[in-house]
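User: Need the bound-state model for flavin-adenine dinucleotide:
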Amino acid sequence: MNPIVIVGGGAAGLAAAVFCARRVGGERVLLLEKQPRVGKKLLATGNGTCNLSNTAAAVPCYHGNNPAFVSSALSRFTPTDTVSFFESLGVKTEVRENGRIYPLCAQAAAVLDCLREEADALGVETRTDTAVKALRPIKGGVNVLTETETLCASAVLVAAGGMASASLGGSTDGYDLLTAIGHRKTPLFPAIVQIRTEKEAIKAVKGIRTDAVLTLKRNGRTEAVSEGEILFADYGVSGPAAMQIGRTAADWERRRQGEMTLSLDLLPTLSYAEVLEDLKRRAARPKRTRETMLTGLVQKRLGQTLIKAAGLAPLSDSTQTISENELKRLASLLKQWTLSVSGSAGMNAAQVTAGGIDTADVDPETMQSLLVPHVYMAGEVLDIDGECGGFNLQWAWSSAYAAAQAMTEGLV
Ligand SMILES: Cc1cc2nc3c(=O)[nH]c(=O)nc-3n(C[C@H](O)[C@H](O)[C@H](O)COP(=O)(O)OP(=O)(O)OC[C@H]3O[C@@H](n4cnc5c(N)ncnc54)[C@H](O)[C@@H]3O)c2cc1C
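Assistant: Bound-state model below.
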């Protein structure tokens, strides 16, 4: 009997290898990884702490041409199943803020080690430095071509990931393998990615971290909102809150329809009226210069930048000469500092690829190709991307589980 061949030793591929091996024995599973080691991207997840799932994982947390595609796989392998699965591997987990699930030890390396050790212990053969170059459907299976040999597979699972973050192994290989046998691919663009804005306005605030509410607007209409920590960079805005909505900037960038702006509410806990009142009090204090006027309200460099942006320079001038209209302008900037957007920081900086293999040609129950028998796919190679917060790894586990169940059906 020819083995089940899994292309890609990342999150989905490793999990699928374990799921298959637990059902039919590892000797019937062959895992091919083109890099010298499996799981390179997995190691980098959650800044090395691996946000491996989210208790809220459900259709609304996913994007793609048909987000409902995730429904079946997610309902058959839920975040609770993820927790039990990792528990069975020896990885204890904990739920943190916003339902994010992490290993208790906060180490992505532990998640990877336990997956790899389980695959090894079950007898899965893993070949690294082995890039799959092509798939050739044959009667009753698929020929899998590497640089040096042709392997006959009873079924093949393409879990080659997306093209985000090339330094961690992101590439177009998975799409290329599948489009070469007739699958269609939707447009690819970065997701969970930093936002590029006009540079001059933010030059002086580079390196500052603060909490804010971010709003991306196209032609003045709100397209995405997020709240949380941001980090000003020389190219634009980074940090979790920016990455969360970076997909919208990237999607706009590839279409270039209309103008996109990013508004920052730097004092989200205060209303505009409260900010204005506070500014009036600050301006009225005797013997104060504009240089320190916002000290204690926002970070010093950020405050000075906004005072200049409001046209209140020179900073050495007294606060008492600021007019009511000027104070209103400053309050508006604190509540709605608007920067023009030029796009995202790009695919290499992104955590996830939006777009991918068109799910219209894939069975959502089994992850099987509807076009080519014996071909399955899982993980990021599909036109599915999740929000930031553990949803992408949950998709990797759930889709791997659905594929593994189907590939081993009839073999058990
Ligand atoms: C910096 C960073 C942090 C992230 N943090 C999180 C997080 O905390 N939580 C979360 O849910 N998601 C996170 N993600 C996203 C998550 O890592 C991915 O969505 C997930 O790894 C996708 O799993 P996958 O198995 O589909 O692809 P991958 O994990 O990318 O694995 C694909 C594997 O296939 C191999 N491969 C490719 N082509 C071939 C070929 N031709 N032949 C053989 N092998 C091949 C690759 O080398 C790779 O090892 C993060 C991503 C990045 C980049």
